[in-house]
Amino acid sequence: MVTIAATAEDLDWRGEFQDPDREALFRRTMRAHDACQLRHALTVAAGLFLAFGLTDYSLLGPSDDFRLLLGMRISVALMLLLLALAVRYRPALAQAPLPVNLACLLAISGLLLTIPLRPDGILISLASLVAASMSLYLFIPNRVPWMLAGNVYLIGGLLVVMRLWSPLPVGVLTNSLLLLGFVNLLCWMTVTRLHRLQRAQFASLADARSVNHGLAAELEERSTLEQRLRHMARTDELTGITNRRHFFELAEQARCEAHRDGTPLSLCMVDIDHFKAINDRHGHAVGDMALRVVAARCQSVLRDSDLMGRYGGEEFVIALPQASPSTAGGIAERIREAVSRQPLEINGVILTLSVTLGIGRVEPGDASLDPGLLRADRALYAGKARGRNCVVMTPRHLATERSSGPVPAASPDDRPAPMPDRAAATAAAVAPAAAPAGGRLPRHP
């Protein structure tokens, strides 16, 4: 109701939109409907015009007037059918004033010419004129001013024909004119109301479509925002890699799969060497750039199945599914070489980057990632104690430890042998004096 009332204020006396652009849009949407309606109206009018030839024959017989009248009827019917055919292939003609009004002019002229050609059928002609007047309003998709103009031509032609060829008694002529006037008034009001209802419905549909588009845009915006929030919740903002919480969610899934399939799983802790000195000497902006570069270089040598996340500060953690300690050591060595291969230059500052990596295996009996993470952290601690820029794996007796008591210091026999061709970059693993399995990880100096 609110939409219809608001739309009615925008309509003129013809029942059309006062805004020309909006009216043009409405007419474009109604083009196919108007074309179909006009084709049907013209076809029916041509058929009826020809059918009245039977009445002519009953009144005139096979006379010259009948043949003249029949020829006129056939000509008008053919013109109407040709216009209907043209509208079929060019629907835009249904809303063009010239062809529509030309068809109306031909039909009205044909009806008026039947009056002097068969004066004995004046009552039938009057009934035909009344029906034609109603058809101009109800069946021809035309604009209201043209409808009124067509009916003015019909009534004026009737008066001329009656005066020149078939004079009627004043009472009959007056009643005929009153009937035509009443028909025009009634049809005008009906058509105007119909136009108003059509445009009110159009406005309602346009409003609904606008609301739907707004809702669709809002849903798309919310979906985009949700994706961004999900990305922010899973990604480290600085480095662009997985954050700590999401990494452990994915790594726990990898641990469960490894336990189910009986495949190895290794964890690798990565620490940037002397990162505090970089921050203190060059500022946090340079330190942030160093973090991003190290993360990118680490990812460049990882496998598709490997998982990397930021553990905190300058530390990263990597889960290596289906990687035995030797395989994990090879991957870690490639990471170390990728980071230290090329210095980093930022605004004239040249930084020599290096990382220390500790590797710990997740044993089949581990119920969580904590024991394997602790082993990797112990190896990392040992690598930093031995001089950094190296890869260290957990000693065998620490990898198999399950007790929660203190761990004795590692002897020289516990130190792993250097990996082939990497002896300079590999340090022996040295365990801290005491670190309970699965307990809190020690802080690195």
Helical residue percent? 55-70%
Q: Which term fits the overall shape? A: rod-shaped
Low-confidence stretches: 1-6, 397-445
- Helix/strand-derived class? alpha+beta
Q: What is the C-alpha radius of gyration, as a whole number of Å?
A: 47 Å
* Fraction of residues in β-strands: 5-15%
Mean pLDDT: 82
> How are the strands of the largest sheet arranged?
2-3-1-6-7
Distance between the termini: 76 Å
- Secondary-structure element pattern, one letter each: HHHHHHHHHHEHHEEHEEEHEH
Counted beta strands: 7
Summarize the main sheet. Answer: 5 strands, mixed
Number of helices: 15
Can you give keywords for this protein?
62% helix, 5-stranded mixed β-sheet, disordered C terminus, alpha+beta, 15 helices, disordered N terminus, two-stranded antiparallel ribbon, 445 residues
